[in-house]
Write a structure and sequence with these properties.
Radius of gyration: 29 Å
Shape: globular
CATH topology: Maltoporin, Chain A
CATH class: Mainly Beta
Helix content: under 10%
Number of strands: 42
Organism: Shewanella sediminis (strain HAW-EB3)
Distance between the termini: 30 Å
Largest sheet: 22 strands, antiparallel, barrel
InterPro entries: Beta-barrel_TonB (IPR000531), Beta-barrel_TonB_sf (IPR036942), Plug_dom (IPR012910), Plug_dom_sf (IPR037066), TonB-dep_rcpt-like (IPR039426), TonB_rcpt_CS (IPR010917)
Membrane topology: Multi-pass membrane protein
Strand content: over 45%
Subcellular location: Cell outer membrane
Family: Belongs to the TonB-dependent receptor family.
Length: 841
């Protein structure tokens, strides 16, 4: 960072300096040289985490800023990739590496507290939840990288400012505006194994008028798949659902004898590590002066996403009725003497289990076609009262629609009847050749869903009166928000006649009226207080009140101390309130040993009587910029978040273990029957959950000149002290269901260059963790990346880079969600090359 001499430094410049330093975190490029050079310019600026229009950009809350140059340099092709690389992230947010159950969405998981607890804003206003329908978080795929000017990550509870969902923090995506000229960007990349190709082409056009600016953009991006079995480190799958079929756990050998099943099916040959996707986006921003002190602003974004995933052929798991004397033979299966001699007998319900991997039909191909539209407009002006008051009115509309499908699904009812009608083709242990029979049991599962949002807001900001140390600033406002969502599964799935899990439709809405206020008080030249209060009245559960208190103390010209205490809440979403029952095949360990496969069906339920989650957050830290080392800044922040009455599903594995140990309450809570009967295994949403997490963030940024080069060094560390949820300590553990809570995550970067070129090395470290499934150690990993850029002239610029330079293999996790690891945490596709060209006229 550029510094002025201590003697020439004004109070305003000093305040701006500390505010800028406070915003620098993850990367060395978060504050450009040109931005710092304009320190002397005084204007009111909107800062993430506060509605007060400020001149000094300084708040008590820690904010990370990532600009477009950094996103380009590190080769990020989607917003979720960029966010999940930050050290402040944990858990296992869905994204491009999530093949099973994601419906192609990409989300952010700040502090690992859940994507539904991180609020996503676009230009300071709410973004509509999006995905396959009735979603509880924003699909980041709806925001193209090409339109991003910078991303601000508020790592502090902000419900008192923004309302629900901001428990863990806020991600505010600022789009490109005030652009003049025409620019084309073309980027692309692939792995060193010649797969996983990705590319984007975008165009940006903007022009100024005497009274405004209009900026327009378009982008197209495509990402191709990477199959799991194409990576030689992948653990082969061993599913109990095999193409030849099994009856009562027995299979026919090559001699036609019934024997114990010993082989498993390798499902990794059909599944993706990187899922294919295509995105088409149009966006625009405008600023138009309508007269003295009256400005109209607006932005519009439309994105179409076409994505797909692929899983192994549908596993059919049928409990067939066994014929007894006098039964209609077309409504049951007959056990011949060879079967009986092999030990195939009916259970106490008179049934025998039949399992078959429907490879004769083909793999399950999941497709999504989603459309997301967001329009926001605002009118702002000022009133000549006191020292001046600024007012604004805004309306934001968002709508998301989705059509989803699953090819080669299986109708369990028809399949059962087909087996009863003629069991021979199904029990020979040989591939099935009757195409008409296969066509009769297979179908394409189709579903549709959507989300809609309306937000009206009004605000007033200004200065109340002067104290000796300065003016008392304030912001007050009101907001009305309406949210609705729906999801209609395929009728066969709703009827429970599919081999996939049964699911009910979702449909519901709610509205909320809010009032809020903020006050910034300069108690002394060095001490400033920030106070916020918000009241929300929901149509579903009633009302909630939240507050925030922040203090900044400029101890010296080099040192600022800051702290924030706040309360927060999260209202239950449409799907949590009105979702009905749905099934999920979770990776679990059956302690009774009754289940043949680790994927066990869990019935998930919602509840219309859910109450809001409540939270407390606390941060305390310092910003240090030593005058004796020009260009250096250091931030250290302690943080803690506590959530009670959390809307959550209890740990199913923990419930199984407790029930097996004799805890009858656990058996009843999860509907576990006698002797470990898991036919009705249920996990309900409740308000009995909690989270308690704490840690320390550290950042060092240093810019200097040496060897006739400009250098920038940055180091970011997050040290997790504790993460506890619902009675389980996840600190420094990793698991396929919950993701990773590494005690140490570190990002380091160093950049060197001159006016027309630069090179950069950066690495990402994920520390050693405990395997939650086995208790063994999971190895730490260090990823190395390099990039370079060169400006031929004011028109042409090229860039290139390599991610995962040393082709590090992901760490093995016993209960991994795919391929023996957790793709949402580790890089599973290997070394990647990328390059780009920018042309500006």
């Amino acid at each position: 960072m550029i510094r002025t001499s201590q003697h020439s430094r004004s109070k305003l410049a000093s305040a701006i300096k500390f505010g800028l330093i406070a915003s620098v975190s993850t990367t060395a490029f978060t504050v450009s040289t040109s931005a710092v050079a304009e320190e002397a310019k005084v204007e009111r600026i909107a800062v993430t985490g506060s509605r007060i229009q400020r001149q000094d950009m300084e708040t008590a809350s820690p904010v990370t800023v990532i600009d477009a140059a950094t996103i380009k340099a590190e080769g990020f092709t989607s917003v979720d990739q960029m966010l999940q690389a930050q050290t402040s992230m944990a858990g296992a947010a869905m994204g491009s590496s999530t093949n099973n159950g994601s419906d192609g969405v990409a989300q952010v998981d700040l502090r690992g507290m859940g994507s539904q607890r991180t609020l996503v804003l676009l230009n300071g206003r709410r973004m509509v939840n999006s995905g396959s329908g009735a979603d509880s978080a924003v699909d980041l795929n709806s925001i193209p990288v090409a339109m991003i000017a910078r991303v601000e990550i508020l790592k502090d509870g902000a419900s008192a400012v923004y309302g629900s969902d901001a428990i863990a923090g806020v991600v505010n995506i600022i789009t490109k505006k005030d652009f003049e000229g025409f620019q084309i960007d073309v980027t692309g990349g692939m792995t060193d194994k010649s797969d996983g190709e990705n590319g984007e082409i975008s165009a940006l056009y903007g022009f100024n008028t005497d009274t405004g600016n209009y900026t327009f953009g378009a982008a197209y991006s495509e990402r191709r798949g990477v199959v799991q079995s194409d990576r030689d480190w992948t653990d082969p799958g061993a599913s109990s659902f095999i193409p030849n079929g099994s009856l009562g756990g027995m299979v026919k050998d090559e001699n036609g004898n019934w024997v114990d099943r010993e082989e498993g099916y390798d499902y990794t040959q059909d599944s993706f590590y990187q899922t294919p996707s295509k995105r088409y986006s149009l966006f625009a921003n405008m600023t138009q002066e309508l007269g003295d002190d009256l400005v109209l602003t607006g932005d519009i974004l439309y994105t179409k996403r076409k994505s797909n995933q692929q899983l192994a052929p549908q596993p059919a798991n049928l409990d067939l009725d066994v014929c007894e004397a006098g039964d209609d033979p077309t409504k049951c299966v007959e056990l011949d003497q060879d079967m009986i001699d092999a030990g195939i007998t009916p259970n106490d319900k008179g049934q025998v289990n039949y399992r078959k991997r429907m490879s004769d039909v083909g793999p399950r191909i999941y497709t999504q076609d989603t459309d997301t539209l967001r329009v926001s407009a605002g009118l702002a002006g000022s009133i000549d009262v006191n020292t001046g008051m600024d007012w604004d009115l805004a309306y934001t509309y968002g709508k998301n629609k989705a059509k989803t499908a699953v090819e080669n699904s299986i109708n369990a009812s028809i399949m059962t009847d087909a087996i009863y009608a003629d069991q021979d083709p199904w029990l020979t242990g040989q591939p099935m050749t009757d195409q008409d029979l296969l066509n009769s049991v297979a179908y394409t599962e189709e579903a549709d869903g959507g989300n809609e949002q309306h937000v009206f807001s009004a605000g007033l900001t200004g200065e109340l009166f002067d104290l000796d140390a300065g003016a008392v600033a304030y912001a007050i406002g009101a907001e009305y928000r309406y949210e609705s969502g729906y999801y209609n599964p395929d009728p066969i799935v709703v009827a429970g006649e599919s081999t996939a899990a049964q699911q009910d439709p979702t449909d519901g809405n709610y509205n909320v009226i809010s009032v809020f206020q903020e006050v910034s008080v300069p108690f002394t030249d060095k001490l400033t207080g920030e106070f916020a209060l918000r009241f929300d009245d929901y149509s579903t559960f009633g009302n909630a009140s939240t507050w925030k208190i922040g203090l900044t103390y400029e101890a010296t010209d080099d040192l600022m101390i800051r702290t924030v205490a706040a309360t927060g809440f999260r209202a239950p979403s449409v799907s949590e309130l009105y979702g009905g029952n749905s099934g999920s095949f979770d990776y679990l360990d059956d302690p009774w040993g009754n289940e043949q496969d680790p994927q066990i069906l869990v019935i998930r339920t919602s509840d219309e009587d859910l109450k809001p989650e409540e939270s407390e957050s606390y941060t305390a830290g310092l910003v240090y910029s030593p005058s004796y080392v020009d260009g250096m800044s250091l931030t250290v922040d302690y943080w803690r978040f506590k959530v009670k009455n959390a809307i959550a599903r209890m740990d199913t594995q923990n419930g199984l273990n407790n029930c097996f140990a004799g805890d009858q309450a656990a058996c009843e809570a999860f509907n576990i029957g006698p002797n470990g009967d898991l036919d009705n295994l249920t996990n309900s949403l409740t308000n009995v959950g909690y989270q308690d997490t704490s840690g320390i963030d550290f950042n060092l940024a240093y810019s200097f000149e040496a060897l006739s080069l400009d250098w920038t060094i940055s180091n970011d560390t997050t040290y997790l002290l504790n993460f506890e949820q619902d009675g389980v300590d996840y600190t420094n553990t990793i698991d396929g269901n919950f993701g990773a809570y590494a005690q140490v995550r570190n990002n380091f970067s160093i950049k060197a260059g001159q006016d027309d070129w630069s090179v950069m090395y950066f690495n990402r470290y994920i520390g050693e963790m405990d395997d939650l499934g086995e208790g063994t150690k999971v190895d730490a990993i260090l990823y190395h990346n390099v990039s370079a850029s060169y400006y031929f002239n004011d028109t042409w610029m090229v860039s290139a880079g390599v991610k995962n330079l040393t082709d590090e293999e992901p760490s093995n996790v016993s209960n991994g969600s795919a391929g023996g690891t957790v793709p949402e945490v580790y890089d599973t596709i290997g070394r990647q090359y990328y390059a780009g060209v920018t042309v500006k006229f």
